[in-house]
Each structure stands twice: as structure tokens, then as C-alpha cells.
Specification:
- α1 runs parallel beside α5, α2 runs antiparallel to α3 and α4 packs antiparallel against α5.
- This protein has a domain of 290 residues: 6 Propeller (Neuraminidase), CATH 2.120.10.30.
- The relative contact order is 0.09.
- By secondary structure, the chain is α+β, with helices and mostly antiparallel strands.
- The strands form nine sheets. It has a four-stranded antiparallel beta sheet with strand order 7-30-29-28, with no helix packed on it.
- It is 20% helix and 32% strand.
- It is globular, with a radius of gyration of 26 Å.
- The longest helix has 33 residues.
């Protein structure tokens, strides 16, 4: 109910008269203009309702392309499926199983989130019904509805990270496979701002080994498709798979105490998901090795590299694996097809002795690889981030490099890295309890989250290590000392 106010200026007619506030709008109107304003808000609500109905129809049309009795069949006129079917027709019966497997991958990428969208839409519809019943129309509420509907609509846009590749090495047929183009941070946009207060989405219940606890988490990886976060739980010697929104994680690697058996881990520092091989690749730092654990077969494990002081991992879109080697102060690359026990990687950064020259590193930790195979390295002891161009003989300082400190041109033991599409560097400034952004060619950075002293408040960090992000560019931080994973949400610019 609008309540009378003292004589003031009407927002619409500008007359000085008795005005009434509109709840949620922070504006005052005379009696006549208040009625007009409420009608305008009601009309806006009905417009949103109309847009929602149109969206329901679009969603229903997409769901009709998946028959209930054939969940593996997807929309036949999708360009990727047309290409698969043409290939299948020219091949022989023995490769039909391969075609079916690849269809399932496309289906998961295109339609895998439709049930989730339907649930969100149902909740949205229920929310609109409650607002309509209460006639609670105001600008704040309606703007929120518009934003929610826009987010739903964006979720059914065609995926852009699918590519079909053919292997012409065989003589009878071309081997077909669907590849989900993998790059750990490829969608990070420029000019992003995050809310200063984070949400704890994993851990935060004291350090321990229960399923709702973490013990000094290190590297993290966000699965964009399934909405899981994978966590290298360092002192628990395990990898946790944590569904976003859940209170507990699931142990998917180790569970047998720390040790050096093939079914054990010892102080893992990083983990990534090899999407094409449906497996985890883990820096098993305490055992000086890199290992692969299948996500589909718990008995399928293998050692990929031995005798390496591995810390950080990243795989590029070609399937090449990059590993930071603390013991040799270098970053090494293994080409796809050359990854395996006993095979030597090539040094692509550092490897020229321990030091602070431009061709040297001291204990490199986490790494980032862009599409041009430019390598970004957190040069831990040198308190700097280095950028090495492909086949370069030395690096370029892109963050820090002014000694250990807390000024905006300094770092204090850098760890996790993200790099956006224009070359801005985001780095976990471990010793300063902050995440910084260093714009391209800038001599100093700016604090984007944290930087409010060491602590466990929602706007504080406590020795941050790993960084990752999701498809909406929300920022995830492994808050080492606090035993938690913090999510800083993107500021809504709507």
C-alpha cells in the first residue's frame, strides 16, 4: 500500500503537491501519476509474461526433438549430425558403433542441460504467478524477472565449442570423432568485475577429511558441461568431485591413504579433466609423477610421467599436455600421442638454471596456455608472472617483477593464473591474500577480489592458490588456509 508523504515534487508532473512513494521504485508521485505509474508497471509485467510464454514454446520445440523411447537420438537436421550421417552411409557396418558413440557426445553438449533449464523455468513461472497474485509490480522486481528470463534464454543458444575432425591416417575409411574443444579458461572475457563478497561453494567447515571438509586445497577445475568442480585436496591426498550447490563432495581419486601405489595419491597439487578421454590428469606432487585416472572405469589408472616435480597442469585444444617442473625450474610440453610413461617432454619455458634472468625461472607453479601456445607461468620465488611466446628463448615479465611486496606493482608468491582474450593476467597473489588483474602491458595491477587482510570473511582470502571460472565468468578461488572454495559472482551490468 502506498502511504501519504509530506508535500514534495511529483516525479512525473513536477508539481509540488502531496505525493506517495512507489514501493521498490524509490520515487514519489501525485495520486494521478501514481495510478498511471502502477499501470505502466503492470503492462511491463504482462510483456515479460508474453516473452516467457514464447520461451516456453521454443523450449518445448527443442525437447520434442528427443523422443522419449530413443534418448540417444538428437535433432536430425543439426549440421554436425548431417555430417556424421553422410560419413556413416559411406562406411561399413563395423564402424556404426563409433557413430553412435559420437552422437551421444553431441547430444550431451546440445541437449544435456534441457532438464535443468525446464526446472529453472518452472521455478521462474511459479515466481511470476506469486507476483501476479500479489500484484507486486515494481521496477526492481520486474528488472530481476527480465534478467532471469534473459539468462534462461541464453542457455539454449547453440554451443560454439564443438568441432568435427577426421583422421585420414586409415586407408579404408576416415575415422570420425567428435571433439569438445578444450581450453581451461578460453571463455574469460575482458573488463569483468566481481562482487567483493564471495559464496563458499565447497568446504568451509574447518580443515578435515570429511566429505564436507577440505585440507589445504590447491588446484581446481570447473566442468562447464556438468556443473562440477574438481578439487586437488592436498593434505587429504585425494581429488574431490563437488557438484555446485551441494553440501558434500565425492571422492573420485584415491581413498586408500597416501602412498605411491597406483591406487594412491600423495599431496596432489592440480587436476584437469581430459574431456575426450573421459579421465582426470593429476599432478601427484608427493610421488613426483603425473597420473591419469579414468572417470568411467575406477580400475583404469596409469602413470604418465615419472621423476618430475610437477605442480601445475594444462592441456591445449590439440591435446598437448603442459606441466610445470619445480625441480628443473622449467615448463615442459608433451605432444598428443607422445604422452606416456618413459617419454620425455620438451622444455618450452625456463630450463636454463635457477635465477631471475628473462630465460630463467625459480620454482614455477601454475601455468596457462592460450590458443597461440603462449605460455604464462607463475614464477613463484621470483614474485612475477612470465609470458613465453611459442618457441621463444626467453620470457617477458607481465606481472610483478619488482621484488616481493604488497604494492600494486609487486607480487608475493604468485600461484593460480587466468588470462583473458586480450592478454590481461589474473593471478592469485598468495602472500597478499588477494586476486589481481594486470592489464596487458601495464606496469602495475589492480585488486579484483580480496585484499582486505588475511581472514575468513566473505570479502577476505586466506592464502589463495588455485583459480578457475565457469561459463558465466564467475571466479572460483581455492582459499588454501581456510579450507574452502570461494565463488565471486560477476557484477550484473543489466
Amino acid at each position: 500500500m502506498a502511504t501519504s508523504n509530506v508535500s514534495t515534487i511529483c516525479f512525473t508532473c513536477k508539481d509540488e503537491t502531496t505525493t506517495y512513494p512507489c514501493p521498490g521504485c524509490s520515487k514519489h508521485f501525485c495520486a494521478d501519476d501514481l495510478m498511471k505509474h502502477r499501470e505502466e508497471l503492470k503492462s511491463l509485467f504482462h510483456e515479460i509474461e508474453h516473452q516467457r510464454n514464447e520461451f516456453v514454446q521454443i523450449l518445448n520445440d527443442q525437447q520434442k526433438t528427443i523422443p522419449n523411447n530413443h534418448p540417444s537420438i538428437i535433432q536430425i537436421n543439426h549440421p554436425f549430425i548431417i555430417q556424421i550421417n553422410l560419413w556413416e552411409q559411406k562406411s561399413i557396418a563395423k564402424i556404426k558403433q563409433t557413430a553412435e558413440e559420437q552422437r551421444k557426445i553431441v547430444q550431451q553438449s546440445i541437449h544435456g542441460n534441457l532438464p535443468q533449464i525446464q526446472t529453472q523455468l518452472n521455478n521462474f513461472t511459479e515466481q511470476m504467478q506469486k507476483i501476479n497474485k500479489r500484484k507486486d509490480f515494481n521496477e526492481i522486481v520486474l528488472q530481476k524477472l527480465q534478467t532471469q528470463l534473459k539468462q534462461l534464454q541464453q542457455q539454449i543458444n547453440p554451443p560454439t565449442n564443438i568441432e568435427i575432425k577426421q583422421d585420414s591416417s586409415t586407408t579404408l575409411i576416415h575415422k570420425l570423432s567428435i571433439q569438445i574443444l578444450y581450453h581451461r579458461h578460453h571463455q574469460l572475457k575482458s573488463n569483468i568485475k566481481w562482487k567483493p563478497n564471495a559464496q563458499t561453494i565447497a568446504g568451509g567447515n574447518g580443515r578435515g577429511d570429511k566429505l564436507n571438509q577440505l585440507a589445504y586445497p590447491h588446484g581446481i577445475y570447473v566442468d562447464h558441461q556438468q556443473q562440477y568442480i574438481y578439487i586437488a585436496d592436498y593434505y587429504n591426498h585425494r581429488i574431490l568431485k563437488w557438484k555446485l550447490g551441494e553440501n558434500n563432495g565425492e571422492i573420485i581419486a584415491r581413498g586408500n591413504g597416501n602412498g605411491n601405489r597406483i591406487d594412491q595419491l600423495n599431496q596432489p597439487t592440480d587436476v584437469i579433466v581430459d574431456e575426450n578421454n573421459k579421465s582426470l590428469i593429476i599432478c601427484d606432487y608427493g610421488n613426483r609423477r603425473v597420473v591419469r585416472w579414468s572417470l568411467e572405469n575406477p580400475n583404469d589408472k596409469e602413470i604418465l610421467m615419472e621423476n618430475i616435480s610437477c605442480w601445475g597442469l594444462m592441456m591445449n585444444e590439440n591435446g598437448d599436455l603442459f606441466v610445470s617442473d619445480l625441480g628443473n625450474d622449467a615448463v615442459k610440453r608433451w605432444r598428443k600421442g607422445e604422452i606416456g610413461k618413459g617419454k620425455e617432454g620438451r622444455i618450452v619455458a625456463g630450463g636454463n638454471g635457477r635465477g631471475d634472468k628473462l630465460n630463467q625461472l625459480i620454482q614455477p607453479t601454475y601455468i596457462f596456455i592460450d590458443r597461440e601456445e603462449t605460455i604464462y607461468v607463475s614464477d613463484y620465488v621470483n614474485h612475477r608472472v612470465m609470458k613465453w611466446l611459442k618457441d621463444g628463448n626467453e620470457g617477458i615479465v607481465v606481472a610483478g617483477g619488482q621484488g616481493q611486496g604488497k604494492c600494486l606493482n609487486q607480487l608475493n608468491y604468485p600461484y593460480g593464473l587466468l588470462v583473458n582474450e586480450i592478454g590481461d593476467v589474473y593471478v592469485a597473489d598468495y602472500g597478499n591474500h588477494r586476486i589481481m588483474c594486470w592489464p596487458l602491458r601495464s606496469k602495475e595491477g589492480r585488486v579484483v577480489v580480496g585484499g582486505n587482510g588475511e581472514g575468513e570473511g566473505s570479502n577476505q582470502l586466506n592464502y589463495p592458490l588455485g583459480l578457475s571460472f565457469d561459463v558465466e565468468n564467475n571466479l572460483y578461488v581455492a582459499d588454501w588456509m581456510s579450507g574452502r572454495i570461494q565463488r565471486f559472482c560477476v557484477v550484473n551490468k543489466e
